[in-house]
From TrEMBL, chain B:
Annotated region (Disordered), positions in chain: 1-24
Transmembrane domains' residue ranges: 45-74, 81-103, 123-149, 258-276
Protein name in the entry: Energy-coupling factor transporter transmembrane protein EcfT
Cellular localization per UniProt: Membrane
Organism: Mycetocola tolaasinivorans
Length: 285, 277
Protein backbone atom coordinates (compact mmCIF):
# COMPACT_ATOMS: atom_id res chain seq x y z
CA UNK A 1 0.00 0.00 0.00
CA UNK A 2 1.14 3.51 -0.73
CA UNK A 3 1.83 5.56 2.33
CA UNK A 4 2.47 8.91 0.68
CA UNK A 5 1.23 9.86 -2.78
CA UNK A 6 1.76 13.16 -4.54
CA UNK A 7 -0.11 13.70 -7.79
CA UNK A 8 0.72 16.56 -10.18
CA UNK A 9 1.88 18.80 -7.36
CA UNK A 10 2.93 22.28 -8.44
CA UNK A 11 3.52 24.92 -5.84
CA UNK A 12 4.57 28.57 -5.72
CA UNK A 13 5.39 30.37 -2.46
CA UNK A 14 3.58 33.66 -2.03
CA UNK A 15 5.77 36.29 -3.65
CA UNK A 16 8.25 33.92 -5.24
CA UNK A 17 8.66 34.25 -8.99
CA UNK A 18 8.21 30.79 -10.41
CA UNK A 19 6.95 27.48 -9.00
CA UNK A 20 9.26 25.88 -6.44
CA UNK A 21 7.72 22.45 -7.04
CA UNK A 22 6.78 21.52 -10.62
CA UNK A 23 4.59 18.55 -11.62
CA UNK A 24 5.70 16.30 -8.81
CA UNK A 25 4.38 12.76 -9.04
CA UNK A 26 5.66 10.48 -6.34
CA UNK A 27 4.43 7.42 -4.47
CA UNK A 28 6.15 6.12 -1.41
CA UNK A 29 5.28 2.64 -0.19
CA UNK A 30 4.48 1.95 3.46
CA UNK A 31 7.68 1.03 5.27
CA UNK A 32 9.89 2.42 2.54
CA UNK A 33 13.06 4.40 3.24
CA UNK A 34 12.95 7.17 0.67
CA UNK A 35 15.72 9.77 0.48
CA UNK A 36 15.47 13.11 -1.26
CA UNK A 37 18.69 14.57 -2.59
CA UNK A 38 19.58 17.58 -4.69
CA UNK A 39 21.43 20.88 -4.63
CA UNK A 40 20.53 23.83 -2.38
CA UNK A 41 17.30 25.47 -3.39
CA UNK A 42 16.13 22.44 -5.36
CA UNK A 43 12.86 22.32 -3.42
CA UNK A 44 13.62 19.42 -1.07
CA UNK A 45 12.41 21.16 2.07
CA UNK A 46 9.35 22.43 0.21
CA UNK A 47 8.53 18.89 -0.91
CA UNK A 48 8.73 17.72 2.70
CA UNK A 49 6.48 20.59 3.76
CA UNK A 50 3.96 19.55 1.11
CA UNK A 51 3.85 16.01 2.53
CA UNK A 52 3.34 17.39 6.02
CA UNK A 53 0.65 19.80 4.79
CA UNK A 54 2.53 22.96 5.82
CA UNK A 55 2.47 23.74 2.11
CA UNK A 56 -0.05 25.18 1.35
CA UNK A 57 -1.87 25.22 4.72
CA UNK A 58 0.72 27.22 6.59
CA UNK A 59 2.82 28.91 3.92
CA UNK A 60 -0.23 29.63 1.69
CA UNK A 61 0.74 30.34 -1.94
CA UNK A 62 -0.50 28.65 -5.13
CA UNK A 63 -0.91 24.93 -4.76
CA UNK A 64 -2.13 22.50 -7.40
CA UNK A 65 -2.39 18.74 -7.26
CA UNK A 66 -3.13 16.37 -4.41
CA UNK A 67 -1.23 14.87 -1.52
CA UNK A 68 -2.54 11.64 -0.03
CA UNK A 69 -1.39 10.07 3.21
CA UNK A 70 -2.38 6.41 3.52
CA UNK A 71 -4.83 6.98 0.70
CA UNK A 72 -6.53 10.00 2.29
CA UNK A 73 -6.40 13.38 0.61
CA UNK A 74 -5.01 15.79 3.21
CA UNK A 75 -6.51 18.89 1.57
CA UNK A 76 -9.36 18.94 4.10
CA UNK A 77 -7.40 17.90 7.19
CA UNK A 78 -5.97 20.50 9.56
CA UNK A 79 -2.24 20.73 10.25
CA UNK A 80 -2.94 19.35 13.72
CA UNK A 81 -4.82 16.35 12.36
CA UNK A 82 -2.10 15.51 9.83
CA UNK A 83 0.36 15.52 12.74
CA UNK A 84 -1.15 12.28 13.97
CA UNK A 85 0.04 10.48 10.83
CA UNK A 86 3.08 12.48 9.78
CA UNK A 87 5.99 13.38 12.01
CA UNK A 88 8.30 16.16 10.90
CA UNK A 89 11.72 17.41 11.93
CA UNK A 90 12.98 20.71 10.58
CA UNK A 91 16.45 21.56 9.39
CA UNK A 92 17.14 23.94 12.29
CA UNK A 93 17.11 22.10 15.63
CA UNK A 94 16.90 25.35 17.55
CA UNK A 95 13.27 25.88 16.62
CA UNK A 96 12.41 22.25 17.36
CA UNK A 97 12.44 22.66 21.11
CA UNK A 98 9.11 23.41 22.69
CA UNK A 99 10.70 26.29 24.60
CA UNK A 100 8.90 25.54 27.84
CA UNK A 101 10.65 22.48 29.17
CA UNK A 102 13.58 22.54 31.53
CA UNK A 103 15.04 19.16 30.63
CA UNK A 104 15.47 16.79 27.71
CA UNK A 105 13.31 14.32 29.61
CA UNK A 106 10.44 16.81 29.77
CA UNK A 107 10.99 17.71 26.14
CA UNK A 108 10.40 14.10 25.09
CA UNK A 109 7.42 13.80 27.41
CA UNK A 110 5.80 17.01 26.14
CA UNK A 111 4.11 15.57 23.05
CA UNK A 112 2.82 12.49 24.85
CA UNK A 113 1.42 14.65 27.66
CA UNK A 114 -0.51 16.72 25.13
CA UNK A 115 -2.08 13.53 23.84
CA UNK A 116 -3.11 12.48 27.33
CA UNK A 117 -1.02 9.30 27.48
CA UNK A 118 -1.11 7.91 31.06
CA UNK A 119 1.88 8.96 33.23
CA UNK A 120 3.34 5.50 33.72
CA UNK A 121 3.29 4.86 29.99
CA UNK A 122 4.87 8.23 29.26
CA UNK A 123 7.75 7.45 31.61
CA UNK A 124 8.27 4.08 30.02
CA UNK A 125 8.30 5.44 26.48
CA UNK A 126 10.56 8.38 27.38
CA UNK A 127 13.09 6.07 29.06
CA UNK A 128 13.02 3.79 26.03
CA UNK A 129 13.53 6.65 23.58
CA UNK A 130 16.35 8.23 25.63
CA UNK A 131 18.10 4.88 25.47
CA UNK A 132 17.39 4.28 21.79
CA UNK A 133 18.49 7.75 20.72
CA UNK A 134 21.62 7.57 22.86
CA UNK A 135 20.76 10.75 24.74
CA UNK A 136 20.45 9.28 28.23
CA UNK A 137 23.56 11.23 29.23
CA UNK A 138 21.79 14.56 28.90
CA UNK A 139 18.33 13.64 30.11
CA UNK A 140 18.36 16.31 32.83
CA UNK A 141 20.04 19.03 30.76
CA UNK A 142 18.21 22.12 29.56
CA UNK A 143 17.50 21.57 25.84
CA UNK A 144 18.81 25.05 25.09
CA UNK A 145 22.13 24.34 26.79
CA UNK A 146 22.89 21.55 24.33
CA UNK A 147 25.11 21.76 21.28
CA UNK A 148 23.52 21.89 17.83
CA UNK A 149 24.24 18.23 17.22
CA UNK A 150 22.82 17.17 20.58
CA UNK A 151 19.74 19.28 19.90
CA UNK A 152 19.26 17.57 16.54
CA UNK A 153 19.17 14.20 18.25
CA UNK A 154 16.74 15.45 20.88
CA UNK A 155 14.51 16.95 18.18
CA UNK A 156 14.51 13.67 16.29
CA UNK A 157 13.80 11.66 19.43
CA UNK A 158 11.00 14.03 20.46
CA UNK A 159 9.37 13.40 17.09
CA UNK A 160 9.99 9.64 16.92
CA UNK A 161 8.40 9.15 20.33
CA UNK A 162 5.09 10.30 18.86
CA UNK A 163 5.07 7.09 16.78
CA UNK A 164 3.52 8.45 13.62
CA UNK A 165 3.40 6.16 10.55
CA UNK A 166 5.17 8.58 8.25
CA UNK A 167 8.34 10.35 9.31
CA UNK A 168 9.67 13.32 7.37
CA UNK A 169 13.15 14.43 8.37
CA UNK A 170 14.96 17.39 6.85
CA UNK A 171 18.76 17.11 7.09
CA UNK A 172 18.97 15.59 10.57
CA UNK A 173 22.73 15.19 10.47
CA UNK A 174 23.87 18.59 9.19
CA UNK A 175 25.59 19.40 12.51
CA UNK A 176 26.65 15.92 13.52
CA UNK A 177 30.06 14.32 13.67
CA UNK A 178 30.57 11.02 11.80
CA UNK A 179 29.87 8.82 14.83
CA UNK A 180 26.64 10.67 15.71
CA UNK A 181 25.60 10.58 12.05
CA UNK A 182 25.90 6.81 12.10
CA UNK A 183 23.90 6.71 15.34
CA UNK A 184 21.14 8.87 13.88
CA UNK A 185 20.89 6.70 10.78
CA UNK A 186 20.71 3.63 12.99
CA UNK A 187 17.88 5.32 14.87
CA UNK A 188 15.99 6.13 11.67
CA UNK A 189 16.54 2.59 10.41
CA UNK A 190 15.15 1.24 13.68
CA UNK A 191 12.01 3.31 13.07
CA UNK A 192 11.78 1.89 9.57
CA UNK A 193 12.12 -1.63 10.97
CA UNK A 194 9.01 -0.91 13.05
CA UNK A 195 7.21 -0.49 9.73
CA UNK A 196 7.22 3.28 9.55
CA UNK A 197 7.70 5.14 6.29
CA UNK A 198 10.76 7.37 6.12
CA UNK A 199 11.15 10.47 3.96
CA UNK A 200 14.62 11.86 4.49
CA UNK A 201 16.46 14.85 3.03
CA UNK A 202 20.18 14.26 3.28
CA UNK A 203 23.41 15.49 1.74
CA UNK A 204 25.65 12.68 2.99
CA UNK A 205 25.51 10.46 -0.08
CA UNK A 206 27.37 7.55 1.45
CA UNK A 207 24.62 7.17 4.02
CA UNK A 208 21.88 7.78 1.47
CA UNK A 209 23.29 4.98 -0.69
CA UNK A 210 23.60 2.59 2.23
CA UNK A 211 20.21 3.04 3.88
CA UNK A 212 17.72 4.07 1.20
CA UNK A 213 15.31 1.82 -0.63
CA UNK A 214 14.70 4.60 -3.09
CA UNK A 215 16.31 7.92 -3.93
CA UNK A 216 14.59 10.97 -5.39
CA UNK A 217 16.87 13.48 -7.08
CA UNK A 218 15.38 16.97 -7.06
CA UNK A 219 16.58 19.82 -9.24
CA UNK A 220 14.90 23.12 -10.07
CA UNK A 221 11.69 21.97 -8.46
CA UNK A 222 11.38 18.82 -10.55
CA UNK A 223 12.14 15.18 -9.93
CA UNK A 224 15.21 14.68 -12.10
CA UNK A 225 15.77 11.04 -11.34
CA UNK A 226 14.12 8.44 -9.16
CA UNK A 227 14.93 4.84 -8.43
CA UNK A 228 17.17 2.63 -6.35
CA UNK A 229 20.35 4.27 -5.05
CA UNK A 230 22.34 2.40 -7.72
CA UNK A 231 20.07 3.73 -10.48
CA UNK A 232 20.09 7.31 -9.34
CA UNK A 233 23.78 7.60 -8.55
CA UNK A 234 24.76 6.17 -11.92
CA UNK A 235 22.24 8.40 -13.72
CA UNK A 236 23.96 11.22 -15.63
CA UNK A 237 21.46 13.62 -14.02
CA UNK A 238 23.20 13.06 -10.67
CA UNK A 239 26.49 14.44 -11.93
CA UNK A 240 24.86 17.30 -13.79
CA UNK A 241 23.06 18.40 -10.61
CA UNK A 242 26.23 18.61 -8.63
CA UNK A 243 25.67 15.52 -6.50
CA UNK A 244 28.80 14.20 -4.83
CA UNK A 245 28.59 10.50 -5.56
CA UNK A 246 29.08 7.93 -2.81
CA UNK A 247 32.76 6.97 -2.65
CA UNK A 248 32.13 3.42 -3.84
CA UNK A 249 30.32 4.55 -6.98
CA UNK A 250 32.84 7.27 -7.64
CA UNK A 251 35.65 4.70 -7.34
CA UNK A 252 33.83 2.22 -9.57
CA UNK A 253 33.41 4.89 -12.23
CA UNK A 254 37.07 5.90 -12.02
CA UNK A 255 38.09 2.26 -12.27
CA UNK A 256 35.89 1.91 -15.32
CA UNK A 257 37.80 4.81 -16.81
CA UNK A 258 40.95 2.75 -16.29
CA UNK A 259 39.41 -0.26 -17.90
CA UNK A 260 38.34 -2.05 -14.72
CA UNK A 261 34.66 -2.93 -14.88
CA UNK A 262 32.99 -3.42 -11.55
CA UNK A 263 29.86 -5.57 -11.75
CA UNK A 264 26.72 -3.94 -10.42
CA UNK A 265 26.91 -0.66 -8.54
CA UNK A 266 28.34 -1.33 -5.10
CA UNK A 267 26.79 1.16 -2.66
CA UNK A 268 29.48 0.92 0.00
CA UNK A 269 33.24 0.71 -0.14
CA UNK A 270 33.28 -2.78 1.48
CA UNK A 271 30.80 -3.92 -1.18
CA UNK A 272 33.10 -2.51 -3.86
CA UNK A 273 36.07 -4.34 -2.40
CA UNK A 274 33.98 -7.48 -2.19
CA UNK A 275 32.95 -7.13 -5.82
CA UNK A 276 36.54 -6.63 -6.90
CA UNK A 277 38.12 -9.36 -4.81
CA UNK A 278 35.34 -11.78 -5.72
CA UNK A 279 37.31 -12.31 -8.90
CA UNK A 280 34.32 -11.29 -10.93
CA UNK A 281 35.98 -8.15 -12.24
CA UNK A 282 37.20 -8.00 -15.75
CA UNK A 283 40.38 -6.28 -16.71
CA UNK A 284 40.33 -5.18 -20.28
CA UNK A 285 43.58 -5.58 -22.18
CA UNK B 1 -0.20 -3.83 41.55
CA UNK B 2 -2.62 -3.21 44.38
CA UNK B 3 -5.04 -0.31 44.27
CA UNK B 4 -3.51 1.24 47.37
CA UNK B 5 -0.16 1.52 45.62
CA UNK B 6 -1.74 3.44 42.76
CA UNK B 7 -3.26 6.08 44.99
CA UNK B 8 -1.47 6.04 48.30
CA UNK B 9 -3.41 7.49 51.20
CA UNK B 10 -1.25 9.84 53.18
CA UNK B 11 -1.61 10.17 56.88
CA UNK B 12 0.86 12.90 57.55
CA UNK B 13 -0.72 15.97 59.10
CA UNK B 14 -4.28 16.00 57.91
CA UNK B 15 -4.90 12.72 56.20
CA UNK B 16 -5.85 12.87 52.57
CA UNK B 17 -5.54 10.86 49.46
CA UNK B 18 -5.34 12.23 46.00
CA UNK B 19 -6.32 10.24 42.93
CA UNK B 20 -4.02 12.33 40.78
CA UNK B 21 -1.06 11.13 42.75
CA UNK B 22 -0.23 8.03 40.74
CA UNK B 23 3.19 6.46 41.33
CA UNK B 24 4.34 7.92 38.00
CA UNK B 25 3.24 11.41 38.97
CA UNK B 26 5.77 13.39 40.88
CA UNK B 27 4.65 15.86 43.53
CA UNK B 28 6.67 19.05 43.32
CA UNK B 29 7.81 19.36 46.90
CA UNK B 30 10.92 20.79 48.51
CA UNK B 31 10.38 19.59 52.05
CA UNK B 32 10.17 23.15 53.34
CA UNK B 33 6.80 24.08 54.80
CA UNK B 34 6.71 27.65 53.50
CA UNK B 35 8.02 26.91 50.04
CA UNK B 36 5.68 23.93 49.74
CA UNK B 37 2.59 26.02 50.36
CA UNK B 38 0.31 26.12 47.36
CA UNK B 39 1.28 29.02 45.05
CA UNK B 40 -2.20 30.51 45.47
CA UNK B 41 -1.65 30.57 49.24
CA UNK B 42 1.75 32.17 48.80
CA UNK B 43 0.30 34.81 46.49
CA UNK B 44 -2.56 35.66 48.85
CA UNK B 45 -0.13 35.79 51.77
CA UNK B 46 2.15 38.26 50.01
CA UNK B 47 -0.79 40.16 48.57
CA UNK B 48 -2.40 40.47 52.02
CA UNK B 49 0.82 41.71 53.56
CA UNK B 50 1.32 44.28 50.80
CA UNK B 51 -2.26 45.51 51.11
CA UNK B 52 -1.91 45.86 54.87
CA UNK B 53 1.22 47.93 54.40
CA UNK B 54 -0.50 50.17 51.87
CA UNK B 55 -3.55 50.67 54.08
CA UNK B 56 -1.69 51.44 57.29
CA UNK B 57 1.61 52.94 56.25
CA UNK B 58 4.11 53.49 59.06
CA UNK B 59 1.78 51.94 61.63
CA UNK B 60 2.18 48.43 60.24
CA UNK B 61 5.29 48.62 58.10
CA UNK B 62 7.62 47.27 60.78
CA UNK B 63 5.23 44.39 61.47
CA UNK B 64 4.85 43.56 57.77
CA UNK B 65 8.59 43.64 57.12
CA UNK B 66 9.20 41.52 60.23
CA UNK B 67 6.62 38.94 59.13
CA UNK B 68 8.23 38.83 55.67
CA UNK B 69 11.66 38.34 57.22
CA UNK B 70 10.42 35.63 59.58
CA UNK B 71 8.65 33.77 56.75
CA UNK B 72 11.75 34.02 54.56
CA UNK B 73 13.80 32.66 57.45
CA UNK B 74 11.36 29.77 57.85
CA UNK B 75 11.75 29.12 54.13
CA UNK B 76 15.51 29.03 54.65
CA UNK B 77 15.94 32.19 52.62
CA UNK B 78 16.68 34.83 55.25
CA UNK B 79 20.01 35.81 53.79
CA UNK B 80 18.87 36.32 50.15
CA UNK B 81 15.83 38.18 51.49
CA UNK B 82 17.96 40.57 53.51
CA UNK B 83 20.50 41.05 50.73
CA UNK B 84 17.85 41.90 48.17
CA UNK B 85 15.87 44.02 50.62
CA UNK B 86 18.78 46.15 51.78
CA UNK B 87 20.21 46.60 48.28
CA UNK B 88 16.98 47.69 46.64
CA UNK B 89 13.96 48.59 48.73
CA UNK B 90 15.79 49.97 51.78
CA UNK B 91 17.93 52.28 49.64
CA UNK B 92 14.84 53.37 47.72
CA UNK B 93 13.01 54.05 51.01
CA UNK B 94 15.85 56.14 52.42
CA UNK B 95 16.07 58.09 49.16
CA UNK B 96 12.35 58.79 49.27
CA UNK B 97 12.51 60.07 52.86
CA UNK B 98 15.50 62.27 52.05
CA UNK B 99 14.00 63.76 48.91
CA UNK B 100 10.62 64.39 50.51
CA UNK B 101 12.19 65.95 53.61
CA UNK B 102 14.15 68.45 51.56
CA UNK B 103 11.77 69.17 48.73
CA UNK B 104 8.27 69.19 50.16
CA UNK B 105 7.56 72.77 51.17
CA UNK B 106 6.41 73.27 54.73
CA UNK B 107 6.30 75.74 57.55
CA UNK B 108 8.04 73.74 60.26
CA UNK B 109 11.73 73.96 59.60
CA UNK B 110 13.77 71.12 61.09
CA UNK B 111 17.23 72.19 59.96
CA UNK B 112 18.79 73.69 56.92
CA UNK B 113 21.83 72.59 54.98
CA UNK B 114 23.42 74.58 52.16
CA UNK B 115 20.56 75.44 49.75
CA UNK B 116 18.19 72.87 51.21
CA UNK B 117 15.78 73.11 54.07
CA UNK B 118 14.38 70.08 55.77
CA UNK B 119 10.75 70.43 56.82
CA UNK B 120 8.74 68.38 59.27
CA UNK B 121 5.91 68.16 56.73
CA UNK B 122 8.37 66.75 54.18
CA UNK B 123 9.71 64.22 56.66
CA UNK B 124 6.20 63.11 57.54
CA UNK B 125 5.22 62.76 53.88
CA UNK B 126 8.45 60.86 53.18
CA UNK B 127 7.80 58.42 56.01
CA UNK B 128 4.25 57.87 54.79
CA UNK B 129 5.38 56.98 51.27
CA UNK B 130 8.56 55.13 52.22
CA UNK B 131 6.84 52.90 54.75
CA UNK B 132 4.38 51.75 52.10
CA UNK B 133 7.18 51.17 49.61
CA UNK B 134 9.10 49.16 52.23
CA UNK B 135 6.04 47.07 53.11
CA UNK B 136 5.09 46.30 49.50
CA UNK B 137 8.74 45.74 48.58
CA UNK B 138 9.25 43.29 51.43
CA UNK B 139 6.14 41.36 50.38
CA UNK B 140 7.35 41.14 46.78
CA UNK B 141 10.82 40.01 47.89
CA UNK B 142 9.23 37.43 50.17
CA UNK B 143 7.29 36.14 47.17
CA UNK B 144 10.46 35.93 45.09
CA UNK B 145 12.02 33.81 47.85
CA UNK B 146 9.18 31.34 48.27
CA UNK B 147 7.29 31.17 44.96
CA UNK B 148 8.56 28.75 42.33
CA UNK B 149 7.51 29.55 38.77
CA UNK B 150 7.12 25.91 37.70
CA UNK B 151 4.80 25.30 40.61
CA UNK B 152 2.84 28.47 39.88
CA UNK B 153 2.28 27.54 36.23
CA UNK B 154 1.40 23.98 37.14
CA UNK B 155 -1.05 25.20 39.75
CA UNK B 156 -2.70 27.51 37.24
CA UNK B 157 -3.02 24.58 34.84
CA UNK B 158 -4.57 22.46 37.58
CA UNK B 159 -7.03 25.27 38.24
CA UNK B 160 -8.13 25.08 34.62
CA UNK B 161 -6.06 27.73 32.86
CA UNK B 162 -5.65 26.94 29.16
CA UNK B 163 -2.37 25.34 28.04
CA UNK B 164 -1.95 28.17 25.53
CA UNK B 165 -1.99 30.76 28.30
CA UNK B 166 0.46 28.84 30.47
CA UNK B 167 2.65 28.24 27.40
CA UNK B 168 2.87 31.98 26.80
CA UNK B 169 3.89 32.59 30.43
CA UNK B 170 6.56 29.89 30.51
CA UNK B 171 7.91 30.66 27.04
CA UNK B 172 8.16 34.36 27.88
CA UNK B 173 10.12 33.68 31.04
CA UNK B 174 12.43 31.35 29.11
CA UNK B 175 13.00 33.66 26.19
CA UNK B 176 15.84 35.68 27.71
CA UNK B 177 18.20 32.74 28.36
CA UNK B 178 17.32 31.33 24.93
CA UNK B 179 18.07 34.60 23.20
CA UNK B 180 21.34 34.81 25.09
CA UNK B 181 22.33 31.39 23.85
CA UNK B 182 21.34 32.27 20.30
CA UNK B 183 23.31 35.48 20.51
CA UNK B 184 26.35 33.41 21.49
CA UNK B 185 25.92 31.39 18.30
CA UNK B 186 25.63 34.51 16.14
CA UNK B 187 28.63 36.11 17.88
CA UNK B 188 30.67 32.98 17.18
CA UNK B 189 29.65 33.09 13.53
CA UNK B 190 30.70 36.72 13.31
CA UNK B 191 33.92 36.13 15.16
CA UNK B 192 34.79 33.55 12.54
CA UNK B 193 34.21 36.24 9.93
CA UNK B 194 36.61 38.53 11.74
CA UNK B 195 34.22 40.65 13.78
CA UNK B 196 35.92 41.39 17.09
CA UNK B 197 33.78 40.32 20.05
CA UNK B 198 36.33 39.67 22.76
CA UNK B 199 38.12 42.89 23.55
CA UNK B 200 37.02 45.97 25.46
CA UNK B 201 33.55 47.27 26.09
CA UNK B 202 33.45 49.75 23.22
CA UNK B 203 34.63 47.17 20.68
CA UNK B 204 32.13 44.69 22.08
CA UNK B 205 29.33 47.21 21.82
CA UNK B 206 30.21 47.79 18.19
CA UNK B 207 30.22 44.04 17.65
CA UNK B 208 26.88 43.72 19.40
CA UNK B 209 25.07 45.88 16.86
CA UNK B 210 25.43 43.49 13.90
CA UNK B 211 24.09 40.63 16.04
CA UNK B 212 20.76 42.37 16.60
CA UNK B 213 19.59 41.94 13.01
CA UNK B 214 20.13 38.17 12.81
CA UNK B 215 18.81 37.78 16.36
CA UNK B 216 15.49 39.44 15.54
CA UNK B 217 15.32 37.75 12.16
CA UNK B 218 16.01 34.37 13.74
CA UNK B 219 13.36 34.87 16.36
CA UNK B 220 10.77 35.88 13.77
CA UNK B 221 11.54 32.95 11.50
CA UNK B 222 11.86 30.72 14.53
CA UNK B 223 8.36 31.58 15.64
CA UNK B 224 6.83 30.07 12.49
CA UNK B 225 8.74 26.84 12.79
CA UNK B 226 8.14 26.69 16.51
CA UNK B 227 4.40 27.02 15.98
CA UNK B 228 4.56 24.11 13.54
CA UNK B 229 6.73 22.11 15.93
CA UNK B 230 4.19 22.54 18.70
CA UNK B 231 1.49 21.49 16.29
CA UNK B 232 3.49 18.33 15.49
CA UNK B 233 3.71 17.54 19.19
CA UNK B 234 -0.03 17.52 19.58
CA UNK B 235 -0.22 20.90 21.26
CA UNK B 236 -3.58 21.66 19.67
CA UNK B 237 -5.06 18.33 20.75
CA UNK B 238 -8.33 18.87 22.54
CA UNK B 239 -8.53 15.95 24.98
CA UNK B 240 -7.32 15.94 28.56
CA UNK B 241 -3.59 16.30 29.01
CA UNK B 242 -1.35 14.34 31.28
CA UNK B 243 0.63 15.96 34.02
CA UNK B 244 3.78 14.27 35.17
CA UNK B 245 4.00 16.68 38.07
CA UNK B 246 1.57 17.80 40.59
CA UNK B 247 1.28 20.71 43.00
CA UNK B 248 -0.56 20.03 46.21
CA UNK B 249 -3.36 22.19 47.47
CA UNK B 250 -3.74 20.75 50.93
CA UNK B 251 -6.58 21.40 53.36
CA UNK B 252 -4.23 23.52 55.41
CA UNK B 253 -3.61 25.71 52.34
CA UNK B 254 -7.31 26.26 52.02
CA UNK B 255 -7.65 27.02 55.73
CA UNK B 256 -4.76 29.44 55.53
CA UNK B 257 -6.33 31.27 52.60
CA UNK B 258 -9.64 31.57 54.46
CA UNK B 259 -7.71 32.93 57.42
CA UNK B 260 -5.92 35.47 55.23
CA UNK B 261 -9.20 36.65 53.72
CA UNK B 262 -10.78 36.98 57.17
CA UNK B 263 -7.77 38.88 58.45
CA UNK B 264 -7.92 41.20 55.46
CA UNK B 265 -11.62 41.89 56.01
CA UNK B 266 -10.84 42.71 59.64
CA UNK B 267 -7.90 44.91 58.67
CA UNK B 268 -9.94 46.81 56.09
CA UNK B 269 -12.71 47.18 58.69
CA UNK B 270 -10.28 48.65 61.21
CA UNK B 271 -8.92 50.98 58.58
CA UNK B 272 -12.40 52.27 57.71
CA UNK B 273 -13.25 52.73 61.36
CA UNK B 274 -10.02 54.67 61.87
CA UNK B 275 -10.82 56.86 58.88
CA UNK B 276 -14.30 57.62 60.18
CA UNK B 277 -13.14 58.43 63.71
N1 LIG C 1 9.05 30.56 2.86
C1 LIG C 1 9.47 30.77 1.59
N2 LIG C 1 8.98 31.80 0.86
C2 LIG C 1 9.38 32.02 -0.40
N3 LIG C 1 10.29 31.26 -1.04
C3 LIG C 1 10.82 30.22 -0.39
C4 LIG C 1 10.45 29.92 0.98
N4 LIG C 1 11.14 28.84 1.38
C5 LIG C 1 11.92 28.48 0.32
N5 LIG C 1 11.73 29.30 -0.74
C6 LIG C 1 12.37 29.19 -2.05
O1 LIG C 1 12.02 27.96 -2.61
C7 LIG C 1 13.12 27.34 -3.27
C8 LIG C 1 13.33 25.94 -2.73
O2 LIG C 1 13.65 26.03 -1.35
P1 LIG C 1 13.84 24.77 -0.42
O3 LIG C 1 14.02 25.27 0.94
O4 LIG C 1 12.74 23.82 -0.67
O5 LIG C 1 15.21 24.18 -1.00
P2 LIG C 1 16.08 22.96 -0.46
O6 LIG C 1 16.20 22.01 -1.56
O7 LIG C 1 15.54 22.45 0.82
O8 LIG C 1 17.49 23.64 -0.22
P3 LIG C 1 18.60 23.37 0.94
O9 LIG C 1 19.44 22.24 0.48
O10 LIG C 1 19.38 24.63 0.96
O11 LIG C 1 17.89 23.11 2.22
C9 LIG C 1 14.30 28.27 -3.04
O12 LIG C 1 14.52 28.99 -4.23
C10 LIG C 1 13.87 29.17 -1.93
O13 LIG C 1 14.40 30.45 -2.10
MG1 LIG D 1 16.18 22.46 2.79
Amino acid sequence: MDSVTLTDVTYTYPGSEGPVLRDINLSIRAGEFCSIIGPNGAGKTTLCAAIRGFVPKFYKGDFEGTVRIKGEDIADASIGEIARDVGFVFQNPFTQMSGITASVYDELAFGLRNLGVPPAQIRERVEGMLELAGITAFRDRDPFQLSGGQQQRVALAAMLIMEQDVIVIDEPTSQLDPQSTDDVFALIEAAQKQGRTIVLVEHKMGHVARYSDRVVLMGEGRIQAIGTPADVFTDPAAASHGITLPESIELAQRLAGHGVTVPGSPLTVPALIGALSGGSHHVAD
Amino acid sequence: MSASAVSPARTSRGSYSDPRESPATEVLRTGNGVRDLNPATQLSLAGGLALTAVLFGPLCMVIVVTICLVLSALAGRARPFLTLFTRTILILGIAIVALQTFFVPGTTELFSWWLFTATAEGLAAGIQIASRVLGVGASVILLIQILNLDRLVLDMEQRGMSPRATYVITATVNIIPQMRKQMGVIMDAQKSRGVETDSNLWVRTQAFVPTIGPLILNSIMGVEEKALTLESRGFSATGTRTSLRYVEDRPRDKRLRVLIVCALVAIIGVRIVLWIL
